[in-house]
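ugh ok fine here u go
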Amino acid sequence: MKSILIIFITFLTTTTFAQVKANRNVNDFIPQGFVILEEIKGDLNKDGINDVVLLIKATDKEQFVVDEYRGKLDRNRRGIIILFDKKDSFELALKNLDCFSSEHEDGGVYYAPELAISIKNGNLNISYEHGRYGSWMYVFKAINTDFKLIGYESVYRSNYVFDGITFDETSINFLTKKKLIKEVIKVSSKGKEIYKEFWKKIDVKQLAKLSEIKDFDDIDMSKY
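structure:
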């Protein structure tokens, strides 16, 4: 009887550990046919524990194409999965499997913008870097049961200077419903940019949800 009890307790302990371990494995949240490209950690729900953001990518062989100049390209789209760390397990906070284009898109005369994901001040930053042409960033915050777009930042090569160094800047705060535009009007003899600032109120009926964004390439910020 004692031996049976020991075996039973051992079974329960092993099974419980296996379940906890499974819940702590980020791969358990990856759908079949996807792989993890990058894992980013940071506190997104302000509980003092680092959460996990996964940049994922589909592996459909039908999405491989052959380019005349660049050879074989993987055009599978990329997505994002966000997991809240609950100490003993992970909780799925958000899943959007195909909101990003592949890293092998056609950039025309220049290479396609490079996607980067980071966590800063409790916010999720999704950035696109386009070298000397500029960059832009979407700022999301965990609100209720989704991640909502609360900010947008961009820098673009100025029309005033064409050396790829001086940039105009745009900043949008969707919470305060204000937009700031900084345009370079001249550059001093010491190479310092002289900006003119424009403030504008914007119409925001509701905050965009990360879970509902179908394609970041289609987001139009010029309407604000």
